[in-house]
Amino acid sequence: MDESEQDARRYRASVWSGAGRALWRSPVEASVGERLTELAELARRGHTLMDPHDLVDTYGGGPVGEVERRVADALGMPAAVFFPTGTMAQQVALRCWSGRTGSPVVALHPLAHPEVHERGALGAVSGLRTVHPTDEPRLPTAEEVRNHPEPFGTLMLELPLRDAGFTLPAWDELVDVVEAARERDAVVHFDGARLWECAPHFGRGLREITRLADTVYVSFYKSLGGISGAALAGPEDVMEEARVWLHRYGGLVFQQFPAAMAALRGLAVELPRLPSYVAHARVVADGLRAGFEEAGVPWFRVHPAPPHTHQFQVWLPYDPDRLTAASLALTVETDTVLFRRWSSPGAGGPPGVAVTEVTVGEPGLSWTKDDVREAVGAFLARVG
User: Distance from first CA to last CA of the chain, Å, rounded?
Assistant: First the structure.
């Protein structure tokens, strides 16, 4: 990132983080001082999360061990291992399963995180190879899994599939896909970076959802408001091997108690709130559609409709820089954040359109459908 882009990023962050009204607050927009204030508050309330007399972690244990125990319990898994990053957690999970199944082939979606955001790490670092049962903008169907022409040892399912619009299958479809993988003697791994907020869509608790998988990865900073970190959960023998690879991959960090304590706060405070965010995302999505229709926008998409989680995509037929500028102008002039950065759909995407992601968090719960509709009108007035 060159200096001009860094300056632009700092400006956007200062505008959006300082707004009085927003649908959600993004941690990437916080200043160092704000994050330190959050850490001080975490320290003040730490006694409510675990025994303050317990020792800090030293290559595990302490708060890190407490996170592992609570994640295993929340997901109904025998054991869990704390990782500094989700990328590392999934590398380790898929590597462990490769050794057990005897197959280096992982079936996943071409929009899955390892394919789009990890620079080919599965192949470059772990010697794994990927295949794609489908290239449709959704997870594969049971039929596509059964009929895939190549053998594979592991089926990885990203729940929800973020780059397809945070989309999820129906519960029965998910069950069928897992059964199809079992028919092929494949194991199933869930990329659950955003699994915490999937329960309302499936109408099932987390334990019932994770019961379908052999291993599950979850993140602590995406939806739970943590600092960093992830966990891998699964059978005890697989987690024992995962600890070996954690060390080999350089993830056995001396002390991680700030991230671990933030994860404990997320599990205790944010996790119970997520269903309310998911429910209100539908109100926000309805308000966006109403605003675009009222303004006579020639084409738009709020995807998926209705949202499957508390996050979804919005598509508009304008240049992304023009829309980002309008987003900034709306905040500067009205102290309101409706949208943030917009981007082009990337290679192979339709020309002349832009997409952004919308998240509904605690600040967004006070927005009514009419509030959103009016904000859309104000935003479009600045698009010109």
Answer: 30
Q: What is the torsional sign of CA 58, 61, 62, 67?
A: positive
SS3 3: helix
Contacts of 250 (CB under 8 A, 6+ apart): none
What letter does residue 350 receive in the DSSP assignment?
Answer: P
Question: 211 vs 176, 188, 203, 206, 238, CA distance in Å?
Answer: 14, 11, 14, 8, 16
Contact (Cβ atoms closer than 8 angstroms) between residue 280 and residue 360: yes
Contact 163, 183 (CB under 8 A): no
Q: What are phi and psi of 343, to 5 degrees?
A: -140, 165
CB 232 within 8 A of CB 205: no
Mean pLDDT, consecutive 10-residue stretches, the chain (384 aa), reads: 81 93 90 85 84 90 97 98 98 98 98 96 96 97 98 98 97 98 98 98 98 98 95 98 98 95 95 98 98 96 98 97 97 98 84 96 98 98 94
Output the six-digit token pair for 129: 């190879």
The span from the CA of 314 to the CA of 355, in Å, is: 6
Distance between CA atoms of 28 and 26, rounded to whole angstroms? Answer: 5
pLDDT of residue 45: 83
Instruction: Find the radius of gyration of the CA atoms of the chain.
Output: 21
User: CB atoms < 10 A from the CB of 328, how many?
Assistant: 20
Rounded CA-CA distance 172/170 in Å is 6
Contact yes or no for 80/239 (Cβ under 8 A): yes
DSSP letters for 249-295: TT---S--HHHHHHHHHIIIIIGGGHHHHHHHHHHHHHHHHHHHHHH
Query: In Å, what is the CA distance from 292 to each residue of 82, 303, 341, 374?
Result: 44, 14, 18, 10
For residue 303, the cross-strand partners are 313
In 3D, which of 168, 250, 261, 263 has the Cα closest to residue 222? 263
Strand partners, 161: 167
